[in-house]
Amino acid sequence: MAATASSYSITMRLYTAPDHGVVGAVATQIAASGGVVTAIDVTESRHDRLVVDVTCSASDASHSEELVAAVAGVEGVTVHKVSDRTFLLHLGGKISVQSKVPLRTRDDLSMAYTPGVGRVSMAIYENPEDVRKLTIKGNSVAVVTDGSAVLGLGNIGPGAALPVMEGKAALFKRFADIDAWPICLATQDTDEIVRAVEMIAPGFGGINLEDIAAPRCFEIERRLRESLDIPVFHDDQHGTAIVVLAALTNALRCVDKELASVRIVVSGAGAAGTAIVTLLLAAGAKDVVVVDRVGALSADDSSLSSAHTELAAATNPRRATGSLQEVLVDADVFVGVSAPNILDAEWIPTMAPKPVVFALANPDPEVDPALAGKYAAVVASGRSDYPNQINNVLAFPGVFRGLLDAGAEDVTIDMLLRAAKAIADTVSAEELHPAFIIPSVFHPDVTKRVASAISGRES
């Protein structure tokens, strides 16, 4: 088993015989069992025993248990305690509120709170546009979910969605210095969600809809955009679309093809798939076929839902029909935002020469990226342990930074296109390579370039 991300990282506290050679035996056993040792600390050394903390990563939860069992089998070793580092990181939550002003004296209180704050409230009452300057509104975003489509976990509800929303808020702060607040709603009724967001909107400069299932998310976004005077952005749709277009722009450069002339197959007709298709068409793509569970969507099919009928009408100009395997023949590009293991790597050779494969389903992609790499010219996924990670963190912090800086009231298709170009252009001609089509989320220039593209201001 190949050990992967630190999301399955554990620390084992071991009691061992007073022989430092045992530590080496533990490390050897972990490696033989497919784990990766990232730290070994002898925390206590006595004449009768050693206390050793061993941190290692595994491929999944069951593999973590296998590593613990393997270490317990080493002679002279007792596993005293096992800590899951991801759960330890979440204890007490990942974000907090901190005051930006000192509150040490009566004088401080009189300005930050009563009576001084009353003067500021009246100033905003008399000049409502000053609320962005005189409050947190100008730098705040509500991260709103109903918990109906959380990561790849499905409809797990608002409480279980909270750790994800906290993480989103932390990313806003880390990459764009935006104060974001998790708003987890105990309803999955469209009218109630819309009304709840409308009622809290005065306190925010933007709304980031997150992990709301399709097709409900489409109506919620549409109605909020109509009723609110602040931008509403569904990251699962538009953030994903921005980064996919940026990555595809550079992937096509690697294989010397043009967006307007390639055949694209998109697997997944939900929120992400619909937004990706919309942005690809706006960018100039001409031949896009969308495939769902029953096959290619075609305008000739009268049995489609209203959402799929609209999507089919905008795509599939050749009226292709059939399964994913069938429509993949002679396609230049595959973009998957659907389900794990639905694409057989052996189908990739049937695609056009130098095919591009984006397998983005999380946590398990449509095809193993390593297997896809045997046949495709360029491969991308949502995983951090392979090259070319398609990650929304490349987009949403800069998008909202630009929207807030500009005092924008809406998000436009043109903004999304400019953001995708900004991300693609961050990879220089010298850096561009089939294994490097998209910058790292930690690239120091990504957020400010995207923000500048959105706001129209020079960075």
TrEMBL record:
Pfam families: malic (PF00390), Malic_M (PF03949). SUPFAM superfamilies: Aminoacid dehydrogenase-like, N-terminal domain, NAD(P)-binding Rossmann-fold domains. It comes from the Bacteria. Its cofactor is Mg(2+); Mn(2+). Keywords: Metal-binding, Oxidoreductase. The active site is at Y113, K168. A divalent metal cation binds at E210, D211, D236. Residues 11-85 form the ACT domain. (S)-malate binds at N362, N391. GO terms for molecular function: malic enzyme activity; metal ion binding; NAD binding; oxidoreductase activity, acting on the CH-OH group of donors, NAD or NADP as acceptor. Divalent metal cations. Prefers magnesium or manganese. PANTHER family: NADP-DEPENDENT MALIC ENZYME. Belongs to the malic enzymes family. This is NAD-dependent malic enzyme.
